[in-house]
Amino acid sequence: MTTPSRDKSQAHFVRAQQSIPGGVNSPARAFGSVGGDPLIIDRGEGASLWDIDDNRLIDYVGSWGPHILGHRHPEVIEAVEAALAKGTSFGAPTALETELAEEVIAAVPSVEKVRMVNSGTEATMSAIRLARGHTGRDKVIKFAGCYHGHVDSLLVEAGSGALTLGVPSSPGVPAGCAADTIALAYNDAAGLAATMEEIGSEVACVILEPVVGNMGVVAPADGFLEACRELCTAQGSLLIFDEVMTGFRVAYGGAQSLFGVTPDMTTLGKIVGGGMPVGAYGGRAEIMNSISPDGPVYQAGTLSGNPLAMACGLATLKVLREQDPYPQLEEMTSRLVDGLDTAATDAGLDHVVARVGSMFTLFFNPEPVTSYDVSARNDTERFAAYHRGMLDHGIYLPCSQFEANFVSAAHTGQDVDSTIAAAREVLTGIAD
Ligand code: HOZ
Question: 51, 59, 188, 242: which one is catalytic?
């Protein structure tokens, strides 16, 4: 197998590093943990990407989650073009933002009112402020390996790029900012119960990814989400599900509809914007009414609810609701995951595959990954070799062991089968 030419990408990345820190606008995109340089992407269509050297890649990153319909879905493009024809931003209410809010409320069980922002980070940052303002308490409980964006008070034992780059608690976060954040072990209901017993009356909220996507995919253990719900209710603390990744992904109503546990508040991002910069946070009306201008908790944004982003998100959600691609996503992803599992077994490699809906991770770890501590024991060098090999075969995977792979409704059986064939060759090649 000859490595495809990446001359243009490599030359451009040298240039990018002169003007952009690390050459990337988000550290998770750097290839630091897998070696080599990031590819410079030119365009996408369906399940494929093309880099500027015109190499076609089968895409399992999907812009890190938003592209559940694949790139350039015709109905989404049409809606964005129609919005663009009217202008890009008005800083005033539009009909589109109400329509998207109504669509979100109809889909997500916990949401009675929702505020649009510009990213998942903004959504969690605002949700935490609201939880504190509404309860009059300061402490926040999170779980190690969960990632809630680069919010100061949540960059404590964080997953995603922070975990990949080995800085789960970032310099620059003042000790005072993180002092009220308590990080516990994911899936440890007893640990949460003990902490809530001790300090529950001071806890504003417990925030978690109901299915973790940011230390690789980690499913909640039986009863864990229910325990979070019960302990929060008992102490008057708010339960926040960070569904930035899982919202409209693992089911149309998110993980809360899949697992039947309803949080007090939910944060959204990625799919809700369909590939445009959108985040959202919502919950019971009684809580959301504490936000300015109805209530005293301040949160604002010049571009929040801008019409291009709203049109893109709205069209994406409408296609998902009307066409219900979830059974197909389930079938395609389990076919892929079964193929990867068999290929890794045949190659004699220690591994486990975790999947919830159309998000999955092939872990180079012999034990099921249930928490940050187990995830940290992955063989990341083996993952790096796997990533490089797959890229040479035209398969574009997240460049970290600690990220989720995403399958879209545009992936065909042929895409999946050629991915399995590539993995079989690569995994055999990297076995000892
Ligand atoms: N938060 C994303 C991964 N979990 C990374 C986004 C990006 O780097 O584009």
Answer: 242
